[in-house]
Amino acid sequence: MNQEDYQQIENVFLVRLNATETRFVRYLYDQINWDSRLIGIKGSRGVGKTTLLLQRIKKTFKKLDRVFYASLDNMWFQMHTLQELTEWLYQRGVRHLFLDEVHKYPQWAVIIKNIYDTYQDLNIVYTGSSMLEIDHSRVDLSRRQTLYTLNGLSFREYLKFNRILDADAVALPSLLEDHTSIAMQIANEMPVLKHFAAYLAEGYYPFKLDAGADYLPRLSETAELVIDSDIPAVESVSYASLQKTKQLLMVVAKNVPLTPRISKLAEQLETTRDMCLKLLYLLDRAGLVQLLTRETKNYKHLVGPEKIYLGNTNLMYALGSAVNEGTLRETFFLNQMSVVTSLTTAPQGDFKTAEGLLFEVGGSGKDFGQIANLPDSYLAVDNVGYSTGNRIPLWLFGWLY
């Protein structure tokens, strides 16, 4: 590789860095131990992983002689290798390497492991858009790396991102204990229900700021890209299977929450039951759907889900779902709560947490009928600004991260 070759990939880095703002930084930024030598950040396409990397560079390195960023889906890598680039950079003093879209690079895990073992004072941070390959890698990086997940904007982050309200996240135990005073303070500062409705429709992905009125069509295109580009990059699937995956996603979108009979669903897709389950779990890992099971999900043992939701409320609007209020509420609750705990179905109530807490989700007139007299049970109630007892405003669960 010569200087001219390097200049091409460096120019991309400098242009992207120059365009990156640091006014708003995602919740995960302060949770990452940036001193770790190998850091992996996974998450759905479009949630802001690239921006997170570039913000770290911009906020940390006054000079760029020791740091470099590259996206591994760049066409530059058709003619050059990551090993070649790393050696070139290391010889010139770079000790911090930020790698984006690693799942698009063949045998990325083996190569990163080898780079990590060879250059023992080199710090590596990598991201993968699909949430698939990073978990399924055959190379054991667990002893070397610290792995994080970046989710889409919470309701709290959405408000901060749009300069409406700047407030700290609230841990689930504190929320359950102090929700009355927390909700009252927030509701007194802004018309919370108005902003919550806007968030449910168009607030989950940060690219709303750039997309404007084209946000929902762009989100639909993003969902299609996940299936057409990310899944084939990490799974050996045929073109026919990809088409069935799209068909399956649209079946879910039109019928959420879907209470599936997997055999019947497989028959509708003209595929096998096992393949249908595999496709559902791929969509779940990609963040396009949420599978609610009777027991905690185990991706090594695929069981039929009790219910299937779309990955977040914005997808309901983007994929042409009939946006039912009850489904919208449950989708939001599942999406936000799953960041801090695992959820399963419950014999009584809508959701049960790993800690044994029961939640029923409903409108302002919802009562405790289904979970009356059960310990550790709560109502997540929509269309209310304030709360009392174990009745908690639904929107407040958007404060968990």
What does this structure look like?
The protein has 2 domains: 147 residues, 3-Layer(aba) Sandwich (Rossmann fold); 243 residues, no CATH class. Helices cover 42% and strands 13% of the residues. It is built from 15 helices and 12 strands. The strands form 3 sheets. It has a 5-stranded parallel beta sheet. A 5-stranded mixed beta sheet has the order 8-9-10-11-12. The two termini are 44 Å apart. The model has no long low-confidence stretch (mean pLDDT 93).
Describe what is shown at a glance.
The protein has helices spanning 3-18, 49-60, 82-91, 108-118, 133-136, 155-161, 172-187, 192-202, 208-211, 215-234, 239-255, 262-269, 273-285, 313-318, 325-337; strands at 38-42, 67-71, 96-100, 123-128, 146-149, 289-292, 307-310, 343-344, 351-353, 358-362, 377-381, 391-393. The chain has 401 residues and is α/β, with parallel strands linked by helices.
**Count of helices?**
15
Q: How many domains is the backbone divided into?
A: 2
Give average pLDDT, whole number. 93
Q: Could you tell me the number of beta strands?
A: 12
Give the termini separation. 44 Å
Beta strand %: 5-15%
Spatially, the strands of the biggest sheet line up as: 2-3-4-1-5
Shape, per Cα inertia axes: globular
Q: Percent range for helical residues?
A: 40-55%
Structural class: alpha/beta
Task: Kindly list the characteristics that best describe this protein.
42% helix, 12 strands, Rossmann fold, alpha/beta, 2 domains, five-stranded parallel beta sheet
Tell me the layout of helices and strands.
Elements (H helix, E strand, L loop, with lengths): L2 H16 L19 E5 L6 H12 L6 E5 L10 H10 L4 E5 L7 H11 L4 E6 L4 H4 L9 E4 L5 H7 L10 H16 L4 H11 L5 H4 L3 H20 L4 H17 L6 H8 L3 H13 L3 E4 L14 E4 L2 H6 L6 H13 L5 E2 L6 E3 L4 E5 L14 E5 L9 E3 L8
Parallel strand pairs: 1-4, 1-5, 2-3, 3-4, 10-11, 11-12
Antiparallel strand pairs: 6-7, 8-9, 9-10
Helix pairs in contact: 11-13, 12-13
